[in-house]
Design brief:
single chain
């Protein structure tokens, strides 16, 4: 075997091993998100995670250093997935009203389709953000999300249909909080109100209500009517 062939074979093996390592890491991360969202940090043992990932405990420590490192990586991953999904939204900035509705609709629908996002954040809030505060990456993910809203608002302001005193951060928090509160408290709210608030009709109604509240909040016409 010539040196050139040996080099090519070695590079091929490294490539295969590299892909296998990436796949193993992703399997563990996927399993961790599911386990932590069900059992929380304390109940989400490395044994449960490695079993679901069809891997071994030692691989968790190899790729993530510790259970805490894996948990932080799981939090980062759910934010990363959210941002990647949001980046795929096709917005027509020339129509800021419709674009803002699209952003609100995306967030509301994403929360419904990804309950692990809600449950993991619920768990982290119970612990006062102890783990997420240790992540540098998570802080970076808020910027793109808010910048999307900012772009839409600026266009609406320039067209004279949105209020000049509205901040993108406030509108983003309004959209996120209305969806998050509704879904994270769906069981207690259903019991309190005496009705199941997660039927298809109720969810659609709340989505429309979020759109209405957001548009009324940013509308220059609505602001002027209050004066």
């Amino acid at each position: 075997m010539t040196s050139r062939v040996r080099t090519a074979t070695k590079e091929k093996l490294i490539g295969v091993r590299g892909l296998s390592a990436i796949a193993t890491r992703q399997q563990i991360l996927k399993a961790a998100i599911e386990v932590f969202s069900i059992y929380g940090y304390e109940g989400g043992s490395t044994e449960k995670i490695s079993k679901l990932a069809k891997s071994h405990d030692r691989m968790i420590y190899y790729y993530f250093g510790s259970k805490q490192g894996l948990y932080i990586a799981a939090i980062q991953e759910i934010y990363k997935r959210f941002n990647e999904a949001e980046a795929k939204i096709k917005l027509n900035i020339e129509k800021p009203v419709e674009a803002l509705e699209e952003v609100a609709r995306f967030i509301w629908n994403y929360y419904q389709k990804h309950p692990e996002f809600i449950t993991l954040l619920n768990n982290e809030n119970l612990h006062r953000g102890e783990m997420i505060s240790k992540s540098r990456e998570t802080k970076q993910y808020s910027s793109p999300a808010i910048s999307v809203v900012a772009t839409v608002l600026e266009k609406g302001k320039s067209m004279g249909i949105f209020r000049q005193d509205i901040a993108a951060r406030d509108i983003y928090l309004l959209i996120a909080s209305m969806g998050y509160f509704y879904l994270s408290n769906r069981y207690t709210l259903s019991a309190f109100l005496g009705e199941k608030i997660t039927t298809k009709e109720k969810l659609a109604h709340w989505g429309s209500f979020i759109d209405d509240v957001v548009l009324r909040t940013v509308s220059l016409v609505h602001q002027q009517s209050k004066k």
